[in-house]
Amino acid sequence: MKRLTFGAALLLLTVAGWLAADRATAMEETYIGQIARQRAATRPWHGNYYETMWGSPVALVVPPNAGLQTNYAWGVPSMRISPIYHQYRPGYPGGGYGPSGAFYPTPRVPSDTNQFGVYYIRAPW
Amino acid sequence: MSRSFVRTSSRLLALLPTLALATLAVEFSASEAVAQTPPIFSNYYVPPYGGPGAQLYISPRPTPARVGHVYYTYQPVMPHEFMTPHRRCYYGYMPDGGWTCTKVRWSYNPFNQVWHKPQPVMPNPRPSGHLARKFGAETLPVHDYFEPTSW
Q1: Contact B29/A51, CB-based, under 8 Å?
Q2: How many angstroms separate the CA atoms of B78 and B66, rounded?
Q3: Cα distance from N-terminal residue to C-terminal residue, chain A
Q4: pLDDT value at position B92?
Q5: Using one digit for the tens of pLDDT, what is the confidence trace for B63-72?
Q6: How far apart (Å, rounded) are the C-alpha atoms in residues B53 and A99?
Q7: What is the pLDDT of residue A90?
Q8: Peptide bond before B58: cis, by omega within 30 degrees of 0?
Q9: Contact: A61, B32; criterion CB under 8 Å
Q10: Which of A43, B86, B136, B150 has the highest Cβ tally under 10 A?
Q11: Comparing A32-36, B2-6, B126-130, which segment has the lowest mean pLDDT?
Q12: Which residues contact B109 (CB under 8 A, 6 or more apart)?
């Protein structure tokens, strides 16, 4: 009886762990995943500059497990490390996907890597 | 003594399948993403927020309809799937109620480091040591830059 109880408890723990690991690895219910999703919903994926060849900001697709990006600039701070909040998701959310909005061109002498008009977005899981 | 050993052994034997199941479950679920099987061609989006949105295929802007389009008919080989090691199961549901599971695995090659020794890809103009003796002093790389063998 004791063995049966122990086995049953272990089996339950296994199933619970399996489910938890599945949810965790999907990065949907983790703390960082939630933060990223919430912040991505309240800000655009692009900056204020357009990429010269396309005339609009360009999304650079990075692996879904890429968490941080590095930008370099003149002055202080000369290097910024910030999270990549946005991630591609399935399902058409509506809205326009062509060039729209007013963006600045890349300055003749760029002072920040943000000014090249290329911005990171994580690939879907 | 022997009785106690037998009892312990039988307990361990009884636990073995459970432990094996637990190990398999944890190992299998550690890197398997949970994702619904998308349709034949499913695009991925970032919704617009005060400007243009972004779509994964084709980025950065949609191809006009008159140009034609490229469809990915097999989700496991969509280009973004090769960006990171992963395991995934694609479920297909049959009209009669049955289902299939197509397991895919994209991972590192464990023998890559053994079979393909990293080779310098940039010549060093000022080498030292055995490279200098072999190639001469003005021909080999400044930086010992090696092509990455894994991503």
Answers
A1: no
A2: 23
A3: 44
A4: 82
A5: 666 766 667 7
A6: 9
A7: 83
A8: yes
A9: no
A10: B86
A11: B2-6
A12: B150
Long-range (24+ apart) CB contacts under 8 A made by B65-72 are B71/B40, B71/B41, B72/B40, B72/B41
Q: What distance lies between CA B94 and its chain's CA centroid? A: 28
| Residue of A42, A54, A88, A89 to mutate for B, most B C-beta atoms under 10 A | A88
CB contact (8 A) between residue B48 and residue A17: no
Can you tell me the distance from the alpha carbon of A44 to that of B104, in angstroms, rounded to the nearest whole number? 34
- Chain B positions touching A17 (Cβ under 8 A) are 22, 25-26, 29
- Read off the amino acid at residue A13: L
Secondary structure element (H or E) that encloses residue B87, with its range: strand B86-93
Interface membership of A61 toward B (CB under 8 Å): yes
| SS3 of A25-91 | HCCCCCHHHHHHHHHHCCCCCCCCECCCCCCCCEEEEECCCCCEEEEEECCCCCEEEEECCCECEEC
Q: Which of A3, A41, A96 sits opposite B53 (nearest CB)?
A: A96
Extents of the domains making up chain A:
1-42, 46-125
Residue type, B51: G
Closest Cα in chain A, distance from residue B66 (Å): 16
**Whether B126 contacts B142, CB under 8 Å:** yes
Please give the Cα distance from B120 to B142 (Å, whole number). Answer: 11
CB contact under 8 A, B61 and A88: no
Touching A: B residues 15-44, CB under 8 Å: 15, 18-19, 21-22, 25-26, 29-35, 38, 42-44
Question: Token pair for residue B23?
Answer: 């190990």
pLDDT digit string, tens, across residues A30-52: 778 888 889 999 999 999 999 99
